[in-house]
Structures are given as C-alpha cells and as structure tokens.
What does this fold into?
Amino acid sequence: MYSNLLVVAIILIIETSTEICSVALAKDGKLLDLIESKEGQNHARLVTVFAENLLVRNNIGPGDLATVAVSKGPGSYTGLRIGVSTAKGICYARGIPLIAVGTLEAMAKHVALNRSKYSLTESPSLLFCPMIDARRMEVFSMLLDQDGKVLKPISAEIINEISLSDELIENQVVFFGNGSDKCKDVLTSPNALFLTDVKASAQHMVELVWDAYNKNHFEDVAYFEPFYLKDFIALVSKKNIFG
It folds into this structure.
C-alpha cells in the first residue's frame, strides 16, 4: 500500500502516445517544467534523456519523486510501449506507485479548462471530440460534454460525411488532436469547430494526474498494460471524467 502523505508531491509525467515525445514535472498539481520534441518517432532515444534533464535542471533527485504518471493511450503501439516501460522501470527502481491517464481524456480536460484561450463560449450545447490519428481516415476518438461526461466512449472509427451527424445538428462539436486535421474536409457542418494547436502533451495531463494521486488511483506496476484499443473491448461507464 502506497501513501501520498508527502509534504511536497513531485510527479514525473510521460506522454509518448503520438509523434510527440513529452516529459513534464509537476509539483503539488502545478506544472513545474516541460521538455518535448515533435521530431517524430524518436521516443526510445529521447524519453529517458528528457526525464534526466528535467530532474537535473530542477535540482530534483529520483528519490524525491512521489510517483510517475504515464499516458495510457490509445495511440501509437510502439510509443505507448516505450512510455509505459520507462515509467514502470522508474517505479520499480524507486518503489513508488504508477499513475496512468487516458490520452484523449487529458486533451479534453485541457481544452475544457482553457475555453477562453481557444475562444470557446460557455454553452450547454458545446461538446468536445479529441482525436488521435490512427491510419488512413481512421481515428481514435471519444465525445464528451463540457462537464466531462462521456457521451460516446473511446472507439476507433473511419471518419466520413455522416460521422457525428446527429450530434452536429443541435450542438457545436469541438474537434482537436492530431487526428482532427485530416477530418476538416469531411466534417463540413457549420457546427464543427477545429482547434489546430491542441496535441497530446505531458503538460495537459497534470490535472488528471493530480486528481488520481489524491484519490490513490494507482496501477499495478507489475501487470499494467497500455490501452491499445484495437485489441481491447470493454464497456466504458458514462461518468464525469473531469471530476
């Protein structure tokens, strides 16, 4: 059993589910520092270096970490394996717990908390649809309302002209993530809004990681596996993931 009764909680956060290799440090639920690269699939070479550099330049030792958090997917199979293996290795070595949060949920939480930054109005009809590029016209996506209630669970689907057509009739749907770029020419409803600068990043995971830490929502370090989606079938409860 782990205890989170530390005076100061410093958390290392790893995000490698897409083409971006991103590592952050958070202190008591606030972003402390971040290093990330958009060069492409160099995660195996970069993730450990980024983690070490963050600790050194912030004068933090591995023994000062309260926990390590990792993006659990969905996303790139190879990227997820690298991120999760790195996080588990640190947890094993230091005897600290592991936290995992969903890639899509983290992006949605970020947008929900920063509506004004993206010029989004407060409206009960505003919905969020984070998307991660899969292949061709396929994306990993989910649909949430602005309070974080899951309206459509995570799925892998081919985007076409009728995708989310019912939802787009009465709601504004905000699309973001690296999978949304290839959908602009297909989803032409005036109620479809696209954000071009929201990507998977360790800094977007801070709020959900902090919530999990305070609720002792830790993973089994020995048996935890990433959420690959295509090899996993499960029912997802329609709950508020932002709470």
Notes: The two ends are 24 Å apart (CA to CA). Residues 161 and 188 are 8 Å apart (CA to CA).
